[in-house]
Amino acid sequence: MNYVAQTTRGSLEYRIAGQGPPLLVLNGGHTNCDSPLGHERFFLDQGYQLLIPSRPGYGKTPSSTGKTAEAFADALASLLDLLRLDSVIVVGISAAGRTALQVAGRYPERVSKLILQNAVTGGRFPTGLIRLGAYLLFNPFIEAGTWAAFRAFARIAPQAAFRSMMASLTCLDTDQVINTMSPDQQQAALAFLLACRSGAGFLHDIHHHCGDLSRITAPTLILESTYDGSKDPCHATYAADHIANVELFLSPAESHLFWFSPHDPEIRAKMQEFLQS
């Protein structure tokens, strides 16, 4: 069920799913609280209640609630107060990695464990021409047309559209990557991409900072695809080098979207081991 809370920082849209110990899931770029979540069923099956916010600029959470990762971390702490949650497990996905790190660093007593999934941490993201493309294609005045064009392309030629998007998410040959995926995984990955919208959120994401990682005390699991083409692998190693209680798990998953990889069972097993430890 979806809600809109009035935090000390402003309005914050969120969704709650399941019953059990609370797990705060911070979705990545171009997504909101209703976007398909690759490991949602996994976390529900593990017995967690999922708290999934729309980050500022996405969904019904306005940019004013927190353009910076620090400000939104404060808004999330306020949301936890409203929901009377003393502490949560935090999962930070992709471009939400810096927000997850800010929550864990600014409120260490409220984060019992931290999982980063192909997360952006320190350093510039994105870089070079890709960064320029983000400003041109995903700014709030253009992004609706960008994603509408992609959806139109997908209606006409779904495999070609899927291939064009996957090319930016892997370091490997795109056809090789797609061929490793089952038909169901290909369909789910395309559905995930078709649901994307950038709003004003993605241009906030690329200016975020991760904060002082030495302040993080929660046990941390970093999950990283070896062949993630969306960002430099230095993001994973930076976090691993600066967080005290950390484990870095490198997966041979073929792209940024490791939920749709044949290696995903290994990733799920590692998360299950970490959550039960």
What does this entry show, briefly?
Helix content is 39%, strand content 18%.
CATH structural fold name = Rossmann fold
- CATH superfamily placement: Alpha/Beta hydrolase fold, catalytic domain
Strands, total number: 8
* Largest sheet features: 8 strands, mixed
How many domains make up the 3D coordinates?
A: 1
Number of helices: 11
Strand order of the largest sheet: 1-2-4-3-5-6-7-8
Q: Residue share in helices?
A: 25-40%
Helix and strand run: EEEHEHEHEHHHHHHEHEH
Radius of gyration over all CA atoms, rounded: 17 Å
Q: What is the residue-averaged pLDDT? A: 97
CATH architectural grouping: 3-Layer(aba) Sandwich
Ends distance: 30 Å
**CATH class identity:** Alpha Beta
- β-strand percent reads 15-25%
In words, what does this structure look like?
- The protein is α/β, with parallel strands linked by helices and 277 residues long.
- It has a single domain, classed as Alpha/Beta hydrolase fold, catalytic domain (Rossmann fold).
- It is built from 11 helices and 8 strands.
- The two termini are 30 Å apart.
- The model has no long low-confidence stretch (mean pLDDT 97).
Secondary-structure blueprint of this entry?
Blueprint: E1 2-7, E2 10-17, E3 22-26, H1 40-45, E4 49-53, H2 69-82, E5 88-93, H3 97-106, E6 111-117, H4 128-137, H5 143-156, H6 158-166, H7 174-180, H8 183-194, H9 201-205, E7 220-225, H10 234-242, E8 246-251, H11 264-276
Parallel strand pairs: 3-4, 3-5, 5-6, 6-7, 7-8
Antiparallel strand pairs: 1-2, 2-4
Helix pairs in contact: 2-3, 5-6
Q: What would the keywords be for this entry?
A:
globular; Rossmann fold; 277 residues; single chain
